[in-house]
Amino acid sequence: MPGNELLPIGLAQALLVLLVAPLFTGFSRTLRAKLHSRKGPGILQNYRDIFKLIKRQEVVPAQASWVFRFTPYVVMATTLLIAMVIPILTLQSPLGMAGDLIAVVYLFTVVRFFFALAGLDSGSGFAGIGASREMALAVLVEPTIILVLFVVALLAGTTDLGTISQKVAAGEISYFSPAVWLAMASFAVATFIETGKLPFDLAEAEQEIQEGPLTEYSGRSLALLKWGLYMKQVVVIALFLAVFFPFGSAAVVSTSSLLVSTAVFLLKVAGFYAIAALLENSMARFLLFKAPAVTWVAFGIALLSFVFYLANV
Predict the structure, then answer these.
(1) Are 24 and 87 a contacting pair, CB within 8 Å?
(2) Which of 53, 179, 202, 248 could bridge 308 with an S-S bond, Cβ 3.0-4.6 Å?
(3) How many domains does the chain have?
(4) What is residue 56's DSSP assignment?
(5) Is the model's pLDDT at 207 over the cut of 50?
């Protein structure tokens, strides 16, 4: 189907991610609280927080520039664009040729760059430390993501996300290949880190260093940034699912197939959050200088996947 006919599906994907992202984050917090034998916040608490913040007055630091003011909108818009590009409900990218792995990686980089730059622009030392941590994690994680996607693109013979999803779903890219399951394991670790989970981060801890760039934000801007970060978690998981587990996505576009693919996608994302909550419950947060011990292992697995591809094993 031509890309312009799939555009409404892309808009539906963006709307879906926009609506369910706070729900999944709330589900993760609630599940983790139950595992800790405590009541914890309600599953809808994130929606309440967002709407409460939208109504509050916004205070901007005197030394902040346009970067600080525009970052919440850049993060929201870029994340929604990523949600439109990734084949979430179908086996094709709704934006056609724009559904390219390289383009998606750059869009994720835009989100991280503005998020960290806004922390520095605020003039707060605490926000600056948080921005430094954000960029340090980027240096540790992004090489793994790029290498894995490079291996997958070589296996598929294309960087088009829709084509990759179709080949994986059709079995043309076999799970019995060591290169595939090693790449899958490495990308799973990178996805876990990118979603802000322990032991690397604590996504809902605004007072912690990880969310330091949010220190000077308030009111509507803080609500949009928090909402954008919730959506980023979902689209990172959606990218992992589109590349390695596209099963359940609609091969033929119809109302019934789209409803089924929506339900399957929500179940897969919920499963990822449930597994992540179980892993978080057994770990304490790392100091930043200890994070490379894990990220380099993930990169080593990705590199081993590339070696297996070259060896045609």
Answers:
(1) no
(2) 179
(3) 1
(4) S
(5) no
